[in-house]
Amino acid sequence: MSSSDSIPADAFTLKSPYGRRALGLSVAAAVGGFLFGFDSSVINGAVDSIDQNFELGSVLTGFVVAVALLGCAVGAILAGNLSDRWGRLRVMMLGGALFLVSSIGAGLTFSVPDLILWRVLGGLGIGIASVVAPAYIAEIAPKQVRGALASLQQLAITLGIFAALLSDAVLAWGAGGASEPLWFGLEAWRWMFLVGVIPAAVYGILAFTLPESPRYLIAKGRDDEARKIYAQLVPPVDLEKHINELSTAILEDRKNAGVSLRGPALGLQPIVWAGIILSVFQQFVGINVIFYYSTSLWQSVGFPESASLGISVVTSVTNVLVTLVAIFLVDRVGRKPILLTGSIIMTISLATMAVCFLFAEGAGQDVSLPAPWGPIALVAANLFVIGFGASWGPLVWVLLGEIFPSRIRAKALGVAAGAQWIANFLITVSFPAMSAWSLPLTYGMYAAFAALSFVYVAWKIPETKGMDIEQTETLFVQKPRGTART
After folding, report:
1. What would the pLDDT profile of 237-261 be if each residue is shown by its tens digit?
2. Can you name the residues that pair with 265 across neighbouring β-strands?
3. Residues of the chain where predicted confidence (pLDDT) is lower than 70
4. Each residue of 303-323: b (16+ CB within 10 Å) or e?
5. Are 193 and 362 within 8 A, CB to CB?
6. What is the Rg, in whole angstroms, of the alpha carbon atoms belonging to the chain?
7. How far apart are CA 189 and CA 193, in angstroms?
8. Among 310, 285, 282, 275, which residue's Cα sits nearest to residue 295?
């Protein structure tokens, strides 16, 4: 009988002292996700004013909105190596500092080139946070509640989206419009960026209060420090077992120090491709079109600016609530059934939006949706957010945090997150031009990707619920026909 067999069944639940401590650390780390969500959506209320102020046009507008995502991709790729070299906490602090500087710079911008610079710097910070936070949570979370704790990253993202859209709406309503002056002669859209200083400062301060990842400490030979941290996260009877297992895994990593992500599947290991494809599908369904451009979208089909901002806030609240549902279900139902259900809901809702826009009247800025298609499109958009927020939103982050074995986790997570940001960039930068050309085709394309995501998960993605984080790789290894998976 192993030492863990004598531990009470509820020792690792979120109600236990150990679960509560892991929860507290995970919540603090997930504030990086809040920055991610805030940065993703804060431009929603400002995009039209920026377009008017700098006379950008649809193509340049899309680039200004999306350019931060290129910074995110670079930050995500760099984060793994930086966190292994400097530690998780120092890299968190770096991400918060970059976002703080970006918020101030974007709020005080005076030209398109410098706005692009600030957006890229902010993207670097967010890309770093998007990798370090789920990696840190996966390394301190007991496997029995790892899915729920890893889902906190997506919950924080949705809360960041909500905070950004709510602050956009309040500032615009207070000024009488996003382009109107508010305080100190600065227009409301500038204050939308400046508000980002607050969560950036909170994230930086929290990073000073967190303990370092035990895995990083053991890798650096600081076993006593790691033991003190683990003593707060696991029962005493199980402490040495965890330390020994982690030490063994780290020694194995060192034997494979030169290991790369290369493999037989188009140059990469199958498990790396799984992470990349999941990340790309998460973005190619078009979710960030809703959170980057929803205010402009609803204005374009007949809603006034104030109502459009309100609709965006309601959508973000819906996103938060369904993410809570996902957190409740992920360790009970499993990853795969939830992903499949989400793909079905997204396919139906996006296809409905494509049909609705077939009946749009007018062109350019004068397009509108006649009854009943406007309300149907609005319901379908929120149904899409429900389907995404309860499935692909949080669960892709859960899977990225747990499917990669420790020897390649930092590199693979960085590559997968980088792919996610690049996919996000492609969707975001293309939407203004594509929507001006054909909204039915645009949403039809997103619906097709949602349908393909169902096929891919059903065909290629195994269930990882309750598995040890070092065992999940075996599920992605192709077995000879007739050989059962272990």
Report:
1. 767 776 777 777 777 666 655 666 7
2. 268
3. 1-21, 56-58, 142-148, 150-151, 234-235, 238, 242, 252-260, 262-267, 291-306, 362-368, 406, 410, 466-486
4. bebeebbbbbbebbbbbbebb
5. no
6. 22
7. 7
8. 310
What is the rounded CA–CA span in Å between residue 59 and residue 434?
10
- Which distant-in-sequence residues (6+ apart) come within 8 Å of 200 by Cβ? 35, 96, 97, 99, 100, 103, 125
| Predicted confidence (pLDDT) per residue in 416-451, tens digit | 877 887 888 888 778 777 877 788 898 999 999 999
Count the alpha carbons within 13 Å of 239 in the hemisphere toward its beta carbon: 14
149 token code pair: 């704790």
Dmax of the chain from CA atoms?
73
List, in sequence order, every beta strand (DSSP E) within 362-454: none
Alpha carbon distance, N-terminus to C-terminus of the chain: 21
User: What residues have CB less than 8 Å from 25, skipping those under 6 apart?
Assistant: 137, 140, 210, 211
List the chain domain ranges. 15-210+256-476
Peptide bond into 235 cis (omega under 30): no
Report domain 15-210+256-476's class.
mainly alpha
Nearest to 191 by CA among 31, 39, 42: 42
* This prediction's pTM: 0.68
Distance CA 428, CA 134 (A): 24
Residue with tokens 């986790």: 409
Q: What is the rounded distance in angstroms from the CA atom of residue 298 to the CA atom of residue 305? A: 8
Q: Is 152 exposed, middle or buried (0-12, 13-18, 19+ CB in 10 A)?
A: buried
Residue 158: exposure state from Cβ atoms within 10 A (0-12, 13-18, ≥19): buried
Q: Give 2's DSSP letter.
A: -
Asked if 91 contacts 114 with a C-beta cutoff of 8 angstroms, the reply is no
In terms of Cα–Cα distance, which of 88, 110, 96, 99 is closest to 210?
88
Tokens matching residue 425:
């960039």
| Residue (of 119, 96, 93, 94) closest to 106 by Cα position | 119
